[in-house]
Automatic annotation (TrEMBL):
Domain called N-acetyltransferase: residue spans: 2-145
Signal peptide: none
Cross-referenced SUPFAM superfamilies: Acyl-CoA N-acyltransferases (Nat)
TM helices/strands, residue ranges: none
Biological source species: Amycolatopsis speibonae
Any GO MF annotation of the entry: acyltransferase activity
Annotated keywords: Acyltransferase, Transferase
Domain of life: Bacteria
EC assignment: 2.3.-.-
UniProt xrefs under Gene3D superfamilies: 3.40.630.30
InterPro entries xref list: Acyl_CoA_acyltransferase, Bact_Acetyltransf, GNAT_dom
Protein name: GNAT family N-acetyltransferase
Length: 145
Protein backbone atom coordinates (compact mmCIF):
# COMPACT_ATOMS: atom_id res chain seq x y z
CA UNK A 1 0.00 0.00 0.00
CA UNK A 2 1.27 3.48 -0.93
CA UNK A 3 1.15 6.15 1.76
CA UNK A 4 1.56 9.82 0.84
CA UNK A 5 2.48 12.32 3.53
CA UNK A 6 4.58 15.42 4.15
CA UNK A 7 8.27 14.69 4.59
CA UNK A 8 9.44 14.26 8.16
CA UNK A 9 12.89 15.08 9.60
CA UNK A 10 13.79 11.38 9.58
CA UNK A 11 13.14 11.29 5.79
CA UNK A 12 16.02 13.69 5.05
CA UNK A 13 18.61 11.11 3.97
CA UNK A 14 16.23 9.06 1.80
CA UNK A 15 14.72 12.25 0.33
CA UNK A 16 18.15 13.61 -0.60
CA UNK A 17 19.08 10.33 -2.25
CA UNK A 18 15.90 10.45 -4.36
CA UNK A 19 16.34 14.13 -5.18
CA UNK A 20 19.96 13.52 -6.24
CA UNK A 21 18.75 10.74 -8.52
CA UNK A 22 16.15 13.12 -9.98
CA UNK A 23 18.81 15.78 -10.63
CA UNK A 24 21.07 13.14 -12.24
CA UNK A 25 18.18 11.85 -14.39
CA UNK A 26 17.98 15.28 -16.00
CA UNK A 27 21.77 15.32 -16.43
CA UNK A 28 22.31 18.16 -13.99
CA UNK A 29 24.61 18.61 -11.05
CA UNK A 30 23.69 20.57 -7.94
CA UNK A 31 25.91 21.59 -5.04
CA UNK A 32 25.04 20.50 -1.51
CA UNK A 33 23.67 23.98 -0.81
CA UNK A 34 20.78 23.32 -3.21
CA UNK A 35 19.66 20.27 -1.23
CA UNK A 36 20.12 22.08 2.08
CA UNK A 37 18.11 25.09 0.90
CA UNK A 38 15.30 22.95 -0.50
CA UNK A 39 15.04 20.96 2.72
CA UNK A 40 14.89 24.16 4.78
CA UNK A 41 12.12 25.51 2.53
CA UNK A 42 10.13 22.28 2.78
CA UNK A 43 10.54 22.31 6.55
CA UNK A 44 8.92 25.74 6.85
CA UNK A 45 6.23 24.93 4.29
CA UNK A 46 5.78 28.59 3.44
CA UNK A 47 7.01 28.81 -0.15
CA UNK A 48 7.99 25.30 -1.25
CA UNK A 49 6.19 22.09 -0.39
CA UNK A 50 7.12 18.43 -0.55
CA UNK A 51 5.37 15.11 -0.12
CA UNK A 52 6.84 11.65 0.08
CA UNK A 53 5.49 8.29 -1.01
CA UNK A 54 6.11 5.36 1.30
CA UNK A 55 5.84 1.78 0.10
CA UNK A 56 6.36 -0.96 2.68
CA UNK A 57 7.77 1.64 5.08
CA UNK A 58 10.38 2.94 2.63
CA UNK A 59 10.45 6.37 0.98
CA UNK A 60 10.25 5.55 -2.75
CA UNK A 61 8.90 8.75 -4.29
CA UNK A 62 9.00 12.50 -3.84
CA UNK A 63 7.18 15.49 -5.24
CA UNK A 64 8.01 19.17 -4.82
CA UNK A 65 5.55 21.94 -5.62
CA UNK A 66 4.70 25.58 -5.08
CA UNK A 67 1.80 27.98 -5.50
CA UNK A 68 1.95 31.25 -7.39
CA UNK A 69 -0.42 33.88 -8.76
CA UNK A 70 -1.56 33.71 -12.35
CA UNK A 71 -2.53 36.53 -14.68
CA UNK A 72 -4.95 34.21 -16.52
CA UNK A 73 -6.82 32.70 -13.59
CA UNK A 74 -8.99 34.08 -10.81
CA UNK A 75 -7.08 32.10 -8.20
CA UNK A 76 -3.51 30.90 -7.70
CA UNK A 77 -2.03 27.97 -9.61
CA UNK A 78 0.12 25.12 -8.37
CA UNK A 79 3.36 24.24 -10.12
CA UNK A 80 4.52 20.66 -9.64
CA UNK A 81 8.25 21.23 -10.02
CA UNK A 82 9.88 17.87 -9.30
CA UNK A 83 8.49 14.34 -9.33
CA UNK A 84 10.64 11.25 -8.90
CA UNK A 85 10.04 7.59 -8.14
CA UNK A 86 12.80 5.15 -7.23
CA UNK A 87 13.42 2.79 -10.18
CA UNK A 88 12.47 -0.29 -8.16
CA UNK A 89 9.08 1.25 -7.31
CA UNK A 90 8.08 2.31 -10.82
CA UNK A 91 4.93 0.88 -12.32
CA UNK A 92 3.31 0.49 -8.89
CA UNK A 93 1.23 3.69 -8.90
CA UNK A 94 3.62 5.84 -6.86
CA UNK A 95 3.89 8.73 -9.33
CA UNK A 96 0.14 8.74 -9.93
CA UNK A 97 -0.50 8.80 -6.17
CA UNK A 98 1.91 11.72 -5.73
CA UNK A 99 0.25 13.69 -8.55
CA UNK A 100 -3.19 13.01 -7.06
CA UNK A 101 -1.96 14.13 -3.62
CA UNK A 102 -0.68 17.42 -5.05
CA UNK A 103 -3.98 17.89 -6.90
CA UNK A 104 -5.90 17.28 -3.66
CA UNK A 105 -3.62 19.70 -1.78
CA UNK A 106 -4.09 22.38 -4.46
CA UNK A 107 -7.85 21.78 -4.66
CA UNK A 108 -8.11 22.25 -0.87
CA UNK A 109 -6.44 25.65 -1.32
CA UNK A 110 -8.73 26.57 -4.22
CA UNK A 111 -6.00 26.67 -6.85
CA UNK A 112 -7.15 26.94 -10.46
CA UNK A 113 -4.92 24.13 -11.75
CA UNK A 114 -1.78 22.05 -11.26
CA UNK A 115 0.77 22.04 -14.04
CA UNK A 116 4.25 20.68 -14.70
CA UNK A 117 6.94 20.21 -17.34
CA UNK A 118 8.90 17.21 -18.50
CA UNK A 119 11.36 16.50 -21.25
CA UNK A 120 9.84 15.43 -24.54
CA UNK A 121 12.11 12.38 -24.42
CA UNK A 122 10.76 11.24 -21.02
CA UNK A 123 8.50 8.69 -22.70
CA UNK A 124 7.85 6.55 -19.64
CA UNK A 125 6.61 9.45 -17.52
CA UNK A 126 4.68 10.94 -20.41
CA UNK A 127 2.59 7.77 -20.72
CA UNK A 128 1.29 8.44 -17.22
CA UNK A 129 1.01 12.19 -17.70
CA UNK A 130 -1.06 11.70 -20.86
CA UNK A 131 -3.53 9.63 -18.81
CA UNK A 132 -3.88 12.03 -15.86
CA UNK A 133 -3.54 15.48 -17.43
CA UNK A 134 -3.86 17.49 -20.64
CA UNK A 135 -0.81 18.32 -22.74
CA UNK A 136 -1.43 21.89 -23.88
CA UNK A 137 1.53 21.78 -26.28
CA UNK A 138 3.67 24.48 -24.68
CA UNK A 139 7.41 24.51 -25.14
CA UNK A 140 9.59 25.78 -22.31
CA UNK A 141 12.40 28.27 -22.86
CA UNK A 142 14.98 29.30 -20.26
CA UNK A 143 17.11 32.38 -20.02
CA UNK A 144 19.89 31.64 -17.52
CA UNK A 145 20.82 34.63 -15.39
Amino acid sequence: MITIEPLKPEDREAWESLFRAYIAFYERVAPQEVYDRAWREFSTGERLHALGAQLDGELVGIVHFLVHPSTSALTDVCYLQDLFTAPEARGKGVARALIEAVADWARDRECDRVYWHTKESNVTARRLYDRVAINRGFIQYQLPL
